[in-house]
Design a protein that fits this description.
Bound molecules: zinc ion
Number of domains: 2
Length: 182
């Protein structure tokens, strides 16, 4: 079992300040939202494995993966720097929080349902955390609806859509939240 400090040290070796920041932020979010109960694993910055997603949780390795575009808004060419000066901290923190929800669910029995976002456990976490963040949004599992041979998933009015679950909490923030830098 690798400890938090060992992992953080490894993160600093690979990603400098950004490596240190992401572990400190993980710890803060863990205490704030998960009673410190999540078990840490490697957190790395890199290119995405999943198209448009800004983060990814690989359960088998307890690995949280954050897109390096969060560090640098302009696509890096030959001069990639792991500089927190380029980081949107509010957005990076929200992406990390999202991946920590997956981590939490995986470490407490996993989920059953249609997708890793459209299931009872994820939706429960979204509702719990939305309240803590004061976002004023709520979620429920979105039912399949078959009409004219087409499968549709239509969220009930006033509940988060598939896309908003996929991008929780960042799709539910006011855009100005990411403009002022912390
Ligand atoms: Zn997700």
């Amino acid at each position: 079992m690798t400890t938090f400090l060992e992992l953080k040290e490894e993160g600093i070796k690979r990603f400098g300040e950004a490596g240190a920041w992401v572990y400190d932020e993980w710890k803060k979010l863990n205490d704030t939202f998960f009673h410190g109960n999540n078990k840490v694993g490697p957190i790395v910055w890199g290119l995405t494995m999943q198209g448009e997603s800004l983060g990814y949780y690989k359960a088998a390795e307890n690995l949280i993966y954050l897109h390096r575009h969060l560090l640098r808004p302009i696509y890096p060419r030959n001069d990639l720097t792991w500089d927190v000066g380029y980081m949107n901290k509010n957005l990076s923190s929200d992406v990390l929080l999202h991946e920590m929800i997956h981590q939490r669910i995986h470490q407490t029995g996993g989920w059953v349902g249609e997708t890793s976002h459209n299931n009872v456990r994820f939706v429960e976490e979204v509702n719990r955390i939305s309240k803590m963040l004061g976002l004023g949004v709520k979620a429920r599992v979105i039912e399949k609806n078959i009409s004219q041979d087409k499968v549709k998933r239509q969220a009930k009015p006033d509940y988060l859509t598939m896309r908003e679950l996929f991008y929780f909490p960042y799709a539910s923030r006011h855009s100005s939240y990411y403009q002022k830098e912390s």
